Predict the structure of Interphotoreceptor retinoid-binding protein.
Amino acid sequence: MMIPVKKTIWALAALLGCLSSPGLCQSLPRPAVAQAISTMTRLIEDNYVFAGKGKAIAAHLRREYQAGKFGAVRTWKEFDSLTTRSLVDYGHDGHLYVRHDPNTVKDLVEAEKKAAEDKKAAPGNFTYDPFYYGEAAVENNFGFREVKVLEGNIGYIRLSEINLSEKSLPVLFAAMGFVANTKALVIDLQNNGGGGSAVGDVFQSFFLPKETPLLEFRTRHGATRLAKTETWLTEKKYEKPLYILVNGGTASAAEAFTYALQRHGRARVVGQRSAGGAHMNSWYPVNEHIFISVSTGAPTWPGTEESWEGKGIQPDHPVAAGQEIETVKRLIDKLARTE
């Protein structure tokens, strides 16, 4: 009888690893995992934008736990991966996920405490949000990675995320001021996973008239909110041709920006189909190790049920990766010849 040498070697290596570092082979405490599942399912049931779907997703996660799917996880990072896969496979929602990130959990807990204090002291007061006002936002320059003028006097702004707040408005205004005199503008949102704005739809307001309807947002409780361009923006609007670059990594708030401007005919979209993540999400701490993201709002084109959820945004000019800028230049030249 032949001895399976490779399997024996791997088994011996695993045993030696456990002997030298016992913690690596120990599963997470069962009560901690049970509590995490309980907290996550409650948060999904209480907050998911579509109540019926939220209950179904929570029930699915409970079944997976009861079947022992998460019983052998050794780290919270592994727990994050397994539960996220379970949620996404069942819910088909890219905004529904679990993350192992103790630093973000700490920020979320502090933000919740401060929000409660602010609400108690003066309802309606400013509430600190680490995404917009934390150190990471500043270190990332609020998503503004490149602002330049390409050959031919074409403006170019590349954003790695959408992060607009009172703190980042000067950066947005400086970027738009820098490209104000260009003959066309490219906004590169490739691999921009989204974000949000704490100051309304100010970026879109540079390109459309005041109070232009953009998107209608539906909440868990059936309420709707119509987002419009801002009336308070006094900076000069950009009225030259606008091109937005997207790809499969363009999602969420980056898609919302693109979708509204494309539907209004204000921008031409170039690149590859976007990710298809329309829902708005909120982050909730689960324990000191992990947080969960839950979809809490669903945007649609005003007066319809239409959105890009699950479908993505189809470019007006589909091109292979790496061909986007040259395609834009050809489009600008073609437009110039027809004027």
